[in-house]
Design brief:
Strand order of the largest sheet: 1-2
Radius of gyration: 32 Å
Largest sheet: 2 strands, antiparallel
Number of helices: 6
Order of helices and strands: HHHHEEHH
Helix content: over 70%
Amino acid sequence: METGKTGKYFKYAIGEIVLVVIGILIALQINNWNEDRKLRTVEHAILQNIKSNLIDSKSKLDRVVNRDEEQIKHYKRILHYIDQDLPYNIELDSSFIYISTWASPYLTYIDYETLKTKGLDIIQNDSIKNGITYIYESAFAWLVDDFDRLEWARAENVTIPFSEKHIRYNIENNLARPNDFEALKTNDEFINILNNNMYFRKNGIEACKRINKEIEEVIQMIDKELKQHD
């Protein structure tokens, strides 16, 4: 009889242990599920904010494209007068103001910096994570650190010094006029500046349009991801 009681006791004890273990596992599973749910909530909030940042940056790049296209028109206008050997016309006052200016891309990084502090791995979808990283670390970095920096260097070393020597500016009215337009017609440095300005603006337009297309692709992936978890 004692042996029988001991067997029942052990069976009971084992059953209790099993129940406790199951309870602990369930609790851990629930806790993990809650933690994962919190992470996904944070992830989706970050994706939503980054999407907003990308839309803002895309809009800014569109403005750069519009500004560059407008400047090219002004450079072509000046070159037309030179090529046709036309006398100076007051309409050129609105063109010469752009000789030493360009449109810098001021992009939005706020929520990407937030993402980096929380860790990029919080984004589960590798395609989205890689797309976002490429946009900010490669495309934007090249546009700001390489292309725009080169524009600054050209302005500081070439176009601004030349303009200060040969052009009078009316900043209040956003106009400028050359001191001697007839002399500029045969000035090789000036002709090179105009042609190089057009070259850089065209490259800038192509780069901005390409990056905006890449931004749109990432936005579409983010939208798809967010809709799956609505």
